[in-house]
Write a structure and sequence with these properties.
By secondary structure, the chain is an alpha/beta fold. The chain has one domain: Alkaline Phosphatase, subunit A. The chain contains 16 helices and 18 strands. The strands form 4 sheets. It has a 9-stranded mixed β-sheet, sandwiched between helices. Strands 15-16-17-18 form a 4-stranded antiparallel β-sheet, covered by helices on one side. Helix 8 runs parallel beside helix 12.
């Protein structure tokens, strides 16, 4: 029998080429990976990608040129999309986090207030991705399993199959590494210990994230890194603690007596809030900027890993937070009020394969929209019921600037106040205060109540009608006494 060597060679080449083509096709159809980098109590103005979109006065409320710089987070924005009107469902840790992972308003999650446990009978984006074959992991502050600090081994994983580094809560800047695990300590205790026994929480959780990424890099993965900073106690580790020490930061103009005297009741807070906001603390602000720079460098470490492992194109990276920090605007610290610095959160997303670079989205969202939207972007189907909307089309279409007048709402847990918002206007209703309507374009400092201004009558009516409709639709607790929110 005569063997045709040429024919065999040609067949071999054909088979080889076919296999290569199949591999290329397989690579293109690989499920997208997901990394969520989530910070705590993060003022959106401290990201330089947001500063570039704001007026000079709004970008630098603490004095001209005074702010932190974030080149790595900026890189995500430049290579992806940035949202300018993204809000926490409730500007407090637990309820906001519960909404992010479930796509539900806080009242439906079991965790509408700090310290409560998320319901175990509702799906999260992690349970859905886990069931789709994803390796799911959570690293960092969870705050959906009680008040206990610096503790791990949380029984209910909420779909995050690797939750070894899921911490219940706490904001000590350092961990002491012991044979029994880690222990939260402050900077004074840390300074007395051998360097090899101490690690900053941001570094610790970033290191663990990178270890998990190394382990899971050859399969579809979804990981959430929840960094406890830049939350109080406003301490940045060296060298970040001196990075902004020469910056001559100024008090925001809304601290001026003529403005603070006319604050609405919902803005005044309790005695602790009042006392913390009375005197401007420029040292705390410089430390805050340092913490933000530390976080940005940690983001850079993760982006570098993706680049070195050829994972950039097929990995969705999201940077966001649970709520903001007032940092002395309107004589307030921290969060819990409907002002922009408290309730508006950063949201930047990069997905090179699907989201066009330098996209700016001005439409109003809350993090209730996150789960249905990210699942749709990932082309993952689910029968789960969400309160949030699937807004994936805004991210995936070819338009570079997205603006709509969609009205959504957020609230303080327990029905203390509720707020409707779109890309320009914000309406705040409170049972003990007159309605407040802010025009964020004309008055970005939120000093003027336009509710009873003649030229805003139709706008106020439109915002209020839609707000009350949504409060009823989503069973917002404040509506149990409906008269409190209905105005004449």
């Amino acid at each position: 029998m005569k063997i045709n060597i040429t024919a065999i060679f040609c067949i071999g080449v054909l088979v080889l080429n076919t296999n290569c083509a199949a591999q290329k096709t397989s690579k293109k159809s690989t499920k997208p990976n997901l990394i969520i980098i989530h910070t705590d109590e993060h003022n959106f103005r401290t990201l330089s990608c947001y500063q570039e979109l704001l007026s000079e006065e709004q970008a630098f409320v603490w004095g001209k040129g005074n702010n932190s710089t974030t080149p790595n987070i900026d890189k995500l924005a430049k290579e992806g999309a940035i949202c300018t009107s993204y809000y926490a469902s409730s500007p407090v840790c637990t309820p906001s986090r519960a909404s992010l992972v479930t796509g539900l308003y806080p009242q439906a999650t079991g965790a509408p207030k700090n310290g409560l446990h998320i319901r175990e009978d509702i799906p999260t984006f992690a349970t859905i991705l886990r069931d789709q074959g994803y390796a799911t992991s959570y690293v960092g502050k969870w705050h959906l399993a009680g008040h206990e600090k610096y503790s791990f081994n949380i029984p209910y994983k909420a779909g995050f199959e690797d939750n070894r580094y899921m911490m219940r809560g706490g904001h000590a800047p350092y961990f002491q590494l012991t044979k029994n695990g880690v222990k939260g300590i402050n900077e004074k205790v840390a300074a007395k210990l051998p360097k090899e026994e101490v690690i900053h929480l941001t570094d610790y959780f970033t290191d663990k994230t990178l270890e998990i990424l190394e382990r899971d890099k050859t399969k579809p993965f979804a990981i959430m890194l929840s960094i406890p900073d830049p939350h109080t106690p406003d301490y940045a580790k060296p060298p970040y603690n001196t990075m902004y020490e020469n910056m001559d930061v100024k008090a925001p103009k809304t601290m001026a007596p003529e403005y603070t005297a006319i604050k609405p009741l919902w803005a005044k807070g309790n005695e602790k809030d009042k006392n913390e906001g009375k005197k401007f603390n420029n040292i705390a602000l410089r430390q805050y900027f340092g913490m933000v720079s530390h976080i940005d460098d940690s983001v850079g470490r993760i982006l570098e890993f993706l680049e070195k492992n050829n994972l950039t194109e097929n990995t969705i990276v999201v940077f966001t937070s649970d709520h903001g920090d007032m940092f002395f605007e309107h004589n307030r610290r921290n969060k819990g009020v409907p002002y922009e610095a408290s309730s508006r959160i950063p949201f930047v997303i990069r997905y090179p394969d699907k989201i066009k670079p330098k996209k700016v989205i001005n439409t109003a969202y809350t993090n209730v929209d996150f789960t249905p939207t990210i699942l749709s972007i990932m082309d993952v189907k689910s029968n789960a019921n969400f309160h949030g909307l699937d807004t994936s089309e805004d991210f995936l279409n070819s338009k570079m600037n997205i603006t709509s007048d969609r009205i959504t709402y957020f609230a303080k847990s327990g029905g203390w106040w509720v707020s409707a918002v779109n890309n320009r206007y914000k309406l705040v209703l409170d049972k003990k205060e007159k309605p407040y309507l802010f025009d964020l374009e004309v008055d970005p400092d939120e000093l003027v109540n336009f509710y009873n201004h003649k030229e805003y009558k139709e706008i106020a009516k439109m915002m209020q009608t839609e707000l009350l409709k949504q409060l009823e639709k989503y069973d917002e607790p404040g509506l149990k006494n409906k008269q409190g929110y209905i105005t004449k």
